[in-house]
Design a protein that fits this description.
Structural class: alpha+beta
CATH class: Alpha Beta
Distance between the termini: 32 Å
Number of helices: 3
Strand order of the largest sheet: 1-2-3-5-4
CATH architecture: Alpha-Beta Complex
Oligomer: single chain
Shape: globular
Number of strands: 5
Number of domains: 1
Helix content: 25-40%
Largest sheet: 5 strands, antiparallel
Strand content: 15-25%
Length: 102
């Protein structure tokens, strides 16, 4: 838990996903905030603004908000969370993840 919500960290220090189950600020619906690589936020929001948004506080760093109400593509949510980990984790941890997947 961090900031009153389930939060996922790399090595207990670097955040890569926040889960706002009850909503947060002006977004009164369940959603995630996910770290993203450069340019990903713009692509996702541009392609599906009904599912993705620029979250407060971390949006200026390229993070994306993911709505969890309505029609949720859970496989895509899982991929976004893995990508969020990859965006902030040290290269060695990302390589370990790749080794396990391969």
């Amino acid at each position: 838990m961090s900031h009153g919500t389930p939060t996922f960290f790399v090595r207990d220090r670097t955040t890569f996903v926040y889960a706002w189950v009850e909503g947060h600020h002006d977004h009164a619906f369940p959603h995630l905030w996910c770290a993203c690589g450069p340019g990903v936020q713009e692509v996702l929001i541009g392609a599906e603004p009904e599912h993705f948004f620029r979250p407060p506080y971390v949006g200026h760093r390229g993070w994306v908000g993911v709505r969890l109400d309505g029609d949720v593509g859970w496989d895509e949510v899982g991929e976004l969370c893995q990508d969020a980990f990859r965006a902030v984790a040290p290269r060695r941890l990302v390589a370990e993840l790749d080794d396990r997947a391969g």
